[in-house]
Recover the amino acids of this structure.
């Protein structure tokens, strides 16, 4: 038999063996926009390259609905192979119930403690000294995305901070543009408020309200200013009727809206639309006022499965998610920052480089998901859904309800 033919047969045999031994894992997540789908595709491609099989189970809906379904499946005895949650306290009950796989041995073998930056993201995966999740990125909410086309069409300069953005709203409206695009979902409106909280008052206020649960500070004049700014945002977004966040981002991409307050995942949509930071759009971290980023993001958890082969595949996936090449490929498409502090992102766009600079300078705050329980978060989301829907609710009345929520938070 000729050598080449022998090699071909051997390769075919290895491929057949690999396919036969491939372990399928169902992976649940809520990444369904264009940029998100492209990013999660990098994870799937990398996992399939190991010889296993990523079975995608994307949920086309808000994260809070996806989380409820995931928890229901796990507690109901029908666990998936892996699932995405945000960094923070969302999986506490599942861990306490003993339903999630302990990844400590994987983390130690892969040296996660030496490479995850900031370390608090790995701390958020740790309970009683054991590690239960793989952090995969750093997402920050504190961004104002601006359409250069919208402002050029209106004949005005692109704003450089929040006050200029609000002041430009009447001229944008006169030119037939929507000043501020906001999806009509409570989590988007709550996120907007929290960006105002971080960006318009000293960062200690944010820490005292969400970290210390200080109701007195929540009732104070600094937070009152934030609620006044939220009322401004409500007014200049009054004609925004889209539902999803990526529909709002598309209004900015197409020049129909002046701007959007949204997390850095919006970069993935600009990338899919082949737009370039500094050319078609601009980005203002901290609304151009207080340049600071919250360190939230996403992590993958793995339910316990009564199947040794699948458990081994789960651990392979957990390790794969933090490999340097995978981190680069995923985060460049997701618009997020990598959790590894030792990889080269020289190909990052201008907005991502702004984020990397703030990360290097440690101008960071913890994400609200790291500070408050899902129950408290849900109450705040309900408040802002009502505030944005009901223009008769005054900023003062909304602040009073907010204070009550913070007073009862744990």
């Amino acid at each position: 038999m000729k050598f080449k033919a022998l090699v071909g047969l051997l390769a075919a045999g290895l491929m057949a063996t690999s396919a036969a031994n491939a372990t399928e894992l169902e992976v649940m997540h809520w990444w369904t926009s264009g940029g998100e789908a492209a990013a999660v595709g990098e994870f799937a491609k990398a996992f399939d390259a190991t010889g296993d099989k990523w079975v995608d189970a994307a949920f086309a809906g808000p994260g809070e609905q996806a989380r409820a379904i995931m928890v229901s499946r796990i507690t109901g005895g029908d666990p998936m192979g892996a699932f995405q949650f945000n960094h923070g306290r969302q999986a506490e009950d599942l861990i306490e119930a003993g339903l999630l796989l302990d990844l400590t041995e994987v983390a130690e073998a892969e040296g996660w403690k030496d490479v995850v930056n900031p370390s608090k993201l790995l701390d958020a995966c740790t309970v009683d000294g054991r590690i239960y999740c793989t952090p995969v990125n750093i997402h920050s909410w504190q961004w104002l995305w601006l359409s250069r086309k919208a402002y050029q069409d209106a004949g005005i300069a692109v704003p450089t901070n929040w006050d200029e953005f609000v002041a430009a709203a009447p001229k944008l409206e006169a030119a037939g543009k929507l000043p501020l695009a906001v999806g009509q979902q409570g989590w988007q409106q709550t996120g907007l408020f929290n960006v105002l909280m971080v960006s318009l008052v000293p960062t200690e206020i944010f820490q005292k309200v969400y970290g210390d649960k200080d109701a007195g500070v929540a009732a104070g004049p600094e937070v009152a200013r934030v609620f006044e700014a939220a009322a401004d945002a409500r007014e200049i977004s009054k004609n925004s009727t889209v539902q999803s966040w990526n529909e709002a981002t598309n209004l900015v991409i197409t020049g129909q809206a002046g701007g959007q307050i949204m997390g850095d995942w919006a970069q993935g949509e600009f990338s899919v639309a082949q737009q370039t930071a500094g050319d078609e759009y601009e980005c203002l971290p901290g609304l151009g006022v207080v340049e600071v980023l919250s360190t939230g993001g996403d992590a993958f958890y793995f339910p316990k499965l009564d199947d040794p082969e699948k458990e081994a595949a789960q651990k392979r996936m957990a390790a794969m998610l933090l490999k340097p090449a995978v981190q680069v490929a995923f985060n460049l498409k997701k618009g997020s920052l990598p959790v590894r502090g030792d990889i080269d992102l020289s190909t990052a766009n201008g907005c991502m480089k702004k984020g990397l600079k703030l990360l290097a300078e440690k101008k960071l705050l913890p994400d609200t998901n790291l500070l408050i329980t899902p129950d408290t978060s849900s109450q705040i989301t309900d408040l802002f859904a009502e505030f944005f829907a009901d223009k008769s609710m005054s900023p003062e009345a909304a602040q009073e309800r907010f204070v009550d929520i913070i007073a009862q938070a744990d």
